[in-house]
User: What shape does this take?
Amino acid sequence: MKEIIQSPLLLTLVSIGLIYILGFSLVYLKKPTAAVWKWGLPKKN
Amino acid sequence: MGITKEELKKVIKSSVVFSIVPSLSIVVGLFALISVLGVVWSWWRLSVIGSLSYESLISSSVSTALGFSSNAEMLANATGREFGVVMILMSIGMLSGFFILIPFGKKLSMSVNKTENSSTWKYVLSGTFMLCLFAVYVPVLLFGDTIQAAVMLTGLVIAVGLGILAKKSPKLRWLGDFIMAFSMIGGMISSILWTSIF
Amino acid sequence: MKKENKTTHTLDPFQAWSHKWGRFGTVIALIYMIALPFVVLAYYDSIPSFGEVINISTISILMIYIPVGISEALSYTPILGSSSYLTFITGNIMNLKLPCAVNALKITKKEANTPEGDAIASVAVAVSSIMTVCILALAALFSTWISPVFELPAVKTASNYIIPALFGSLTLGLFSSTNTGNKVVKNGIMGVVPVLIIVSILSILVRVTSGGSLFGMVGFLILFMLPIALISSRIMWKKGVIKVVDKNSTEE
Assistant: This one.
């Protein structure tokens, strides 16, 4: 078990997973921010 | 109409600030979990769906089911397969929410203002499961083993104490976020004291 | 294209985008979360058998948390809207993400599930997730640095008492009311009083006769007690002992 807990493979996979989550978060930060920016502009119609 | 830049900035700032303290509280829980499962796996589990209480419960029940006398023993002696059991269970146990969210997420969001159901049973129902869990564990811990009882009571006292302190002064309000983490660590630390007495 | 705040059922392009990609991204995350242990275990040739994974002790905990997950999804999605995908992936909903999102909605005075509401909730949840991932990463780094601490015998002793310590703080919750969303359940504990009594008697009996504890049997106990708890909770609810009230009308 020790070898699994300390395995570099596990660390790599976990890191990839967390980077994915970070990416997901960044996308979900940028897109709404952009949308909100657009909405904040004065309406043209 | 819409959201101003000011409001947006405010939201971002307040979310940042809002997240610091609870995240630190999760960190405290992380330390507790590391003592049972190692750094990497605890880190992963606490970063994705799956609360500290769930992860601890699963690792404890697997440890008992596999016949280990203690978490420390499991950490030292478990085989890969046995740890595998823990890993798999943790990963699949909390997924039930997704099986609702993924197919029905859009629909749920649309029908947000469902009118008052005449039946409030569903609220009671969802609470009952967790309450049953408590109702089984608490007496077992309280009456089964002196040290476990002492640890639990210590944790309870700390939790109550912190709760009172947090309410007393606005300066100490941040304590409220740490009640579970501190009382858990406090209880665990107190176990060192209790094991030497009993 | 501008969307008003009426609850019409056509989706704003942002929401449509958010739900579509939210779902897709969540499915990927889901597959990843399930696959990760298997990949690692396969590499070390340590995949356990089905029976080892699913047995009475483990099933009992799952039986508690599966309904919890379902009820969380049902209760929080209406509030979080399309930001719920990221929220559920990263977890810590009740203590972190939900307050963050609700706070964001309050600050901007938007309603949940409108395009604006979804957008601002997504921002809040995204920021919160990034913060947590970073803080946890730093903590993990720190932990490897102090890893000798975790080898100390005192720490090992302490690690055996996670569960009692956990329940110490959770017991407080037993006596207060539980809440999901905007409703509060009061006196929920009355519903499980029979379970408390039965398990207490059993534990005392076992302790007195053999000096041992039922800790190892918790799995069985939970499975047997669940039906009892459900039935008695329903009775208590019907009798009005357990009450459900709106959150705003009570102060705890």
Q: What stands out?
A: Residues 31 and 40 of chain A are 14 Å apart (CA to CA). Chain A touches chain B at residues 1-6, 10-11, 14, 17-18, 21, 33, 36-37, 39-41, 43 (CB under 8 Å).
